[in-house]
Design goal:
Helices cover 73% and strands 0% of the residues. With 138 residues, the protein is mainly α.
Length: 138
Amino acid sequence: MDPDNPVVKLCAQGMEAEADGRPEDALRLFEQAWLERADDFDACVAAHYVARHQESAEETLRWNEISLKHADAVADERVLPFYPSLHVNIGASHELLGDPDEARRHFRLASDRIHDLPEGPYGDMLRQAITDGLSRLT
């Protein structure tokens, strides 16, 4: 991701606020990123982070679906690393909402995109989330 992109900068600041235990500040920064989005890539990134701070599984699902819609509209390699995470998050929301078939479908879609994950702790965490989700729903 382009570290000079204003939306990416706001989301990075929001992640710092999360790490510092300031969830209200994080949400404010992610919502600001959403307001400043300039294109579908920005919207994908911002919605992905806004989803993290919703109070219900329904709202989390809604924001992750918004992010997925915008990722699909970008249609280039910049969004590839988002797909596994988006599908894991959407699958988890469907699981919480009592729809195991849709949850399983999204965990499988995440698994289909596993090659887009980076090496390292983040990728490892998502690989494990995919494995765990599929195990719970099989």
